[in-house]
Amino acid sequence: MSLPASGRVAVFDRPNAPFRIAEYPLRPPAPGEVLVRVAMSTICRSDIHSYQGHRPSPCPGLLGHEIIGRIEALGPGIERDMRGEPLAPGDRVTWSEYFVPGPHYLGDALDLPQKTPGVDKYGHLSADALPHHHGGFAEYCYILPRSWILRLPDELSDEEATPINCGVATMIAATEAANLRIGDTVVVQGLGLLGLYGAAIARARGASRVIGLDTQAPRRARAADFGVDVAIDPGAPDPHAALESVRTACGSLGADAVLEVCGDSAVIPAGLDLLRIGGSYVLAGVVNPSSMVSLDANLVLRKCLTLCGVHNYHPRHLAQALDFVVAYRRRYPFHALVDGRYPLDRVGDAMADAAARRVLRAAIVP
Ligand SMILES: [Zn+2]
User: Fold this and answer.
1) Is 241 exposed, middle or buried (0-12, 13-18, 19+ CB in 10 A)?
2) Are the CB atoms for 283 and 260 separated by under 8 Å?
3) Distance from Cα 219 to the centre of ligand 1, integer Å
4) Given pLDDT bands bounded at 50, 70 and 90, which one contains residue 288?
5) Among residues 81, 68, 71, 97, which one has the least CA distance to residue 1?
6) What's the 339 CA to ligand 1 centre distance in angstroms?
7) Ligand 1 centroid, distance to 122 Cα (angstroms)
């Protein structure tokens, strides 16, 4: 198959500046690389943070890390996905949102390959950085060496498959970190895409009661479809009264686990307060630097709480995320979570709609 000489990418030159289409050269994939034609890339909340300048993002910025694509060409030395399934041009694949520079003690001995020093992420680099095509808002993307790749089964729609490598895998990691058990009561702070997948995965892990918190009425209205028993507005009629109704919903012992997926550190004290003795609090949404919070550390000590953070998920979570979506796609309407489609030259509109929460997950379809 002959490659085109170049491919289009949507870039921005400074935070909040209009997107423009740029064209960069394509070359055959190097050893260990796979060149894919992007099938779909969804806008994650962290893309919005990067675009709005809430965290460092080199420019001209090429965003998009929730991506799937069809293999255009395989580089030398790569023939199979992370589970040993053969890969061929035309196959539709997902891959880890990050790639690491090489082996390291953190991965080999401490089982945290996702935190290898020098780890980088798709959709986080300047488009000027070689090989230029390393983000989702583009026609093509190179899957770089030391990424974890999975071939996607045909039965999954693009809408079901695209969030697997960020939103779904992150919630597999978060619910694993929460050590959920059969019969647990789980509180989910934030009912965006992460929260809805988190609720469904908590159910699959055995939770008998899931309580969801979100200030947005449309999000609460959708929550029941994803396994949330009770959806509560944490601000109404006032935060104190709302907290009391959540407490009542949790039962007399309190929640076994609370998952933070709203990105607002101000919710952390209330989340800790809702936990039972020995409960677990997992941070998965506060991805911005300087997410400061003031809390009573004595509460953590006295209640013997576990407080953990989840970032970049382990490669096994990617495989589990795919298996979860395949197994539960008839039970939960995952396809409906990606509710806006935009061509590459309308990334700006997609970003605006996503930022204003007019859509839950905007998809770029180049
Ligand atoms: Zn993401």
Assistant:
1) exposed
2) yes
3) 19
4) confident
5) 71
6) 17
7) 10
